[in-house]
Design a protein that fits this description.
Helix content is 47%, strand content 19%. It is α+β, with helices and mostly antiparallel strands and 294 residues long. It has two domains: 172 residues, Jelly Rolls (Sandwich); 106 residues, Arc Repressor Mutant, subunit A, CATH 1.10.10.
Length: 294
């Protein structure tokens, strides 16, 4: 079984790792000096990737066996590749820290009592995981990998069991969604382009007007397409942008007002809730990690 880390065609270094009975969790630093492409797959495990520094805007993925060679979708903060699936990834110049996990496929099927089936509709949802529960578990795993405590092997096994259940639930939730009623690809691209143009979050009325539909149609269709509310998605994108500004050296106060927060304290509260640490702690930790000797 190939190690997913060996499938990357660029510099990649493991900073820390914990290995349990069903989960291998690693914090890695990767460096890419020019655009490249790779194919990630694992026959016996879920590959789970959560960026700890901002995901490059140009990072996209394609399940070519299902979608053909031309359809690429944006990669979110968290993506999951099901066992046996091959994800073609394209990216731009980047220095990034990431939590990468291999979760045994059998752990998920045993937790759910059945083998999961990943249809094309479900595969689309794996590239941008909006589940707050999965995010919270991955943040806990990240903290345990960075700072293993007493009985860390036992802890990582417990967290792996929870993660297996949440991934199973996520898959089943996708299957319960209607097959129609989502937003078309060009409307989703318009929304993403608007969010990339300005850090201040747009109103629902602005996005609805941009897409040529009512607010009600927009919110319903967006949830079907992205698997989360448009409000949650806007907040995720705003936090991605805040990470970029912080890593560029912007002051917390400046970032807060640039992103439309009423005060630095309200920004700090939202950032801590989403990322699990304060903006200052995030910047200090990333500076230590990205500048460490290689």
């Amino acid at each position: 079984m190939p190690d997913p880390l060996e499938q990357y065609p660029f510099s990649l270094e493991v900073d820390a790792q914990l290995i349990g009975s069903s989960l291998k969790a690693r914090i890695v630093r990767l460096s890419l000096s020019e655009p490249t492409a790779s194919v990630l797959s694992n026959e016996n495990a879920y590959i789970i990737d959560m960026c700890l520094t901002p995901r490059p805007l140009a990072a996209v993925g394609n399940y070519r066996d299902h979608w053909g060679p031309h359809r690429y979708e944006k990669l979110g903060d968290i993506y999951i590749i099901p066992p046996g699936e091959a994800l073609h990834v394209r990216g731009d110049v980047v220095r990034q820290a990431t939590l990468m996990c291999d979760l045994s496929a059998s752990a998920v099927s045993e937790a759910m009592g059945t083998e999961l089936e990943w249809s094309q509709q479900k595969l689309n949802s794996t590239l941008d995981i909006g589940s707050a529960r999965i995010r919270a578990l991955l943040l806990r795993i990240t903290d345990e990998v960075r700072h293993p405590g007493i009985a860390s092997r036992r802890m990582i096994d417990l967290l792996a069991s929870e993660l297996a259940i949440e991934i199973g639930r996520y898959c089943l939730d996708q299957s319960e969604k209607p097959l129609t009623g989502g937003l078309s690809g060009w409307r989703l691209r318009l929304i993403d382009e608007r969010l990339s143009e300005s850090p201040e979050p747009p109103s629902l009325a602005e996005l609805a007007n941009l897409c040529g539909m009512s607010v009600r149609q927009l919110t319903r269709g967006f949830r079907v397409s992205r698997g989360c509310s448009i409000g949650d998605y806007l907040e995720q994108r705003r936090m991605e942008h805040s990470k970029r500004l912080l890593m560029q050296g912007e002051a917390v106060k400046g970032v807060a007002f640039a992103l439309g927060f009423s005060s630095p304290s309200s920004f700090t509260f939202a950032f801590r809730r989403a990322v699990g640490m304060s903006p200052t702690q995030f910047r200090q930790r990333q500076a230590r990690g990205m500048d460490a000797p290689r």
